[in-house]
Amino acid sequence: MDIMLFHSTYGLRPAVRDAADRLRAAGHEVWTPDLFEGRTFETVEEGRAFKDEIGVDELLKRAILAAAPYSERGLVYAGFSLGAAIAQTLALGDEKARGLLLLHGTSDIAENASVDELPVQLHVAEPDAFEPDDWLTAWYLRMGRAGADVEVHRYAGAGHLYTDPGLPDYDKEAAESTWRVALGFLDSL
Q1: 3-state SS track over the chain
Q2: How do residues 3-55 score in pLDDT, each as one tens digit?
Q3: In this structure, are strands 99-103 and 29-31 parallel, antiparallel, or unpaired?
Q4: pLDDT tens sequence across 64-109
């Protein structure tokens, strides 16, 4: 499978590269575009301030330019938190998308969004201050109305970015469970 994997507001950290290596070891081809052009951050607040400085439109432009050379192959879009939101936006706009793997995040869905049974898998903490239950319920229903085939996996007690061993949110058990399920999902596509 060809996977476009987007980083979180922390930037292209070692955890993203490690995730790409894990996916490659499972036989996938993976690209990890650096939407922050080399900048990484120690706190979510610093990363969000930088994201706001760049602007969502510019980040989406960078993501589209990164994916464009490979989109004819039928990409699986994936991402962490902010990167998941970007991956979702690109997947819903790419008729050749093969799947969508969301780790720790979702995004708004355009009213006219339409996909043909796009396989979607979301992994998120429970609770997650960035992905409240009411939001996730509404997101799930909107994705279904758009035509996506959605699976949601919740991890009780885990922190928001629980798959990143370099952050305080890290939860080894939840992370390993996430990767086990996610690799099965990718193998099914």
Answers
A1: CEEEEECECCECCHHHHHHHHHHHHCCCEEECCCCCCCCCCCCHHHHHHHHHHHCHHHHHHHHHHHHHHHHHHCCEEEEECHHHHHHHHHHHHCCCCCEEEEECCCCCCCCCCCCCCCEEEEEEEECCCCCCHHHHHHHHHHHHHHCCEEEEEEEECCCCCCCCCCCCCCCHHHHHHHHHHHHHHHHHC
A2: 999 999 999 999 999 999 999 999 999 999 999 999 999 999 999 999 999 99
A3: unpaired
A4: 999 999 999 999 999 999 999 999 999 999 999 999 999 999 999 9
Q: Are 1 and 29 in contact (CB under 8 A)?
A: yes
pTM over 0.85: yes
* Cβ atoms of residues 82 and 131 within 8 Å: no
Compute the distance between CA of residue 152 and CA of residue 150 in angstroms, rounded to an integer: 7
Non-local (6+) Cβ contacts of 125 within 8 A are 104, 131, 154, 155, 157, 158, 159, 160, 162, 169, 174
Strand-pair category, 29-31 with 76-80: unpaired
Owner of token pair 């996909």: 115
| Residue the block writes with tokens 């990167």 | 83
Instruction: Return the sign of the alpha-carbon dihedral for residues 124, 159, 44, 165.
Output: negative
